[in-house]
Amino acid sequence: MPEARTSLPPTASRLIERFEKRQGRIGIVGLGYVGLPLAVTLAESGCTVIGIDQDSAKVEAIQRGESYIEDVPASQIAALVSAERLSASTSFETLAQADGVSICVPTPLRKTGDPDLSFIVSAVRAIAPHLHPEMVVILESTSYPGTTRELVLPELEKQGCRVGTDLFLAFSPERVDPGRKDWTTANMPKVVGGITPACTEVAAAMYAQAMSAVVRVSSAEVAEMAKLLENTFRAVNIAMVNEMALMCERLGIDVWEVIEAAATKPFGFMKFTPGPGLGGHCIPIDPLYLSWKLKSVKYTARFIELASEINTSMPRHVVRRVQDLLNDAGKPLREARILIVGVAYKPNVADMRESPALDIIGLLQEKGAAVEYYDPYVPALAGDGIELRSVSDLNKAAGLADCVVIVTDHRALDYAALAKAARLIFDARNVMAASGITDPKIVRL
Ligand SMILES: NC(=O)c1ccc[n+]([C@@H]2O[C@H](COP(=O)([O-])OP(=O)(O)OC[C@H]3O[C@@H](n4cnc5c(N)ncnc54)[C@H](O)[C@@H]3O)[C@@H](O)[C@H]2O)c1
After folding, report:
1. How far apart are CA 318 and CA 367, in angstroms?
2. Does pLDDT of 225 surpass 50?
3. Residue 30: CB within 6 Å of ligand 1?
4. 333 and 401 in contact (C-beta within 8 Å)?
5. What confidence category does residue 3 fall into, taking pLDDT thresholds of 50, 70 and 90?
6. Options 104, 199, 248, 282, the catalytic residue
7. What is the pLDDT of residues 337-389, one digit of tens each?
8. Torsion of CA 291, 294, 300, 306, to 10 degrees
9. Which residues on neighbouring strands pair with residue 29, listed in sequence order?
10. pLDDT for residue 409 is more than 60
11. What's the CA gap between 226 and 345, in Å, rounded?
12. In what order do the strands lie in the sheet with 25-29?
């Protein structure tokens, strides 16, 4: 038995032993981009996983052995379901037999820009009646530091649970990057911070059965803050390079060449590239959870606020650049036909959450342009006042457009054919030059 284990309560030691022998039963609440890969990774390691989601369509898909997340093959789900290592349900009652439960529900912002923790609260309240001794509860949803202790812990204690003695509670941030093949749920180091040291050990043991590296930290707050440091680092650096693009434009300097030159420095520089704005569930949102929390202690998170301001201004900048290009060609934007290429928030996925393409399309439409789009991953757009279907023939639509705007650089596209077909291209991702295509009709951000 490892030395640290001797000071653990017997309940913790028994739980850890069950995880180590792959005899644990684990519930995953929220089977989305984070929860489904986690459920499959844990089930692959040999333990029994019960997935719970309020969305019956997702539950039924898993029961049928189907996948709705690009990174998780249906064949893998089908094999785990038929081996009875993975099941799915809309009911929380199955948690009565669980040794561990991981909460992977959304943490969006409200319309006011404040954190919306209602999904965490409703999940914890649904779990609460099924809590029992010798169980670990782990929050994975990204939130501000203090959420696990201030929001989740009281709900567990209301059930009479003694956290750290008979029930264990920890925070462990998820770092999945949908679409990525080299770093997956299984090989990504997993940070774990418990409410007590025993909570950390039990939670670490649950993940260690399936993940190659578990990083223990001294508290849930450190784990919560580590996730926000990672995402704030991205948001601030993207904003900095976006501002660099704005400054270079005013000075008549090519920002892309500047970045490539700076990136030849072998140390002390990390390459970030400008773009049409931030997207996804994490980078545009998570830092705002932190700045919101800081307001409660009367501190303004200046880097976060400034980064958010610059990043959210980028769609408007793209539209202004397109308007200027059309002006130079003697075409008013209100009479122009614009083709947006790529609308997902990042390449090679269908994820539209917070995609800057939506803002760009909305702004172009507001100015009277006729907007079409092409995205092989996103057949239709509905909502936010936008109702569009992807054009089926990219090059034909490009030939008819006054300007093609590349917003997302999906790998599968034939950029050489697109360059040939289009009359004018605004490339917000520098994908044309990166593909070795240069032409005076291609203008980059
Ligand atoms: N998507 C990512 O790349 C990513 C990466 C790292 C961290 N995160 C964080 O992980 C969390 C989950 O994100 P996601 O992308 O998986 O979200 P998602 O929207 O893809 O999935 C969440 C799932 O939770 C379900 N759900 C919501 N409330 C529920 C409830 N009360 N009971 C049962 N099921 C419920 C929803 O039906 C949905 O299927 C968020 O906090 C997010 O910030 C996401």
Report:
1. 13
2. yes
3. yes
4. no
5. very low
6. 282
7. 999 999 999 999 899 999 999 999 999 999 999 999 999 999 999 988 899 99
8. -10
9. 52, 103
10. yes
11. 24
12. 86-89, 48-52, 25-29, 100-103, 135-139, 167-171, 190-194, 214-217
Closest CA to 42 of 178, 205, 165, 275: 205
Spacing, Cα 35 to ligand 1 middle (Å):
7
3-state secondary structure of 217: strand
Task: Give 184 Cα–ligand 1 centroid separation in angstroms.
Answer: 17
pLDDT digits (tens, 9 = 90+) for 426-435: 999 999 999 9
Considering only CA atoms, which of 30, 28, 57 is closest in space to residue 41? 28
Structure tokens that stand for 283 in this block: 């980078």
User: DSSP string of 308-358?
Assistant: HHHHHHHHHHHHHHHHHHHHHTT--GGG-EEEEE--SSSTTS---TT-HHH
Locate the ligand 1 atom nearest the alpha carbon of residue 69 and give its number.
Answer: 20
Q: How buried is 271 (Cβ within 10 angstroms: 0-12 exposed, 13-18 middle, 19+ buried)?
A: exposed
| Residue located nearest, by CA, to atom 23 of ligand 1 | 30
Is residue 161 part of the annotated active site? The answer reads no
Give nearest CA residue, ligand 1 atom 10: 141
- Amino acid type, 314: M
Residue 205 CB–ligand 1 contact under 6 Å: no
Q: How far apart are CA 91 and CA 50, in angstroms?
A: 10
Ligand 1 contact, 101 CB (< 6 A): no
Band the pLDDT of 268: cuts 50, 70, 90: very high
40 lines ligand 1 (CB under 6 A): no
Amino acid letter for position 56: S
For residue 5, the model assigns a pLDDT of 55
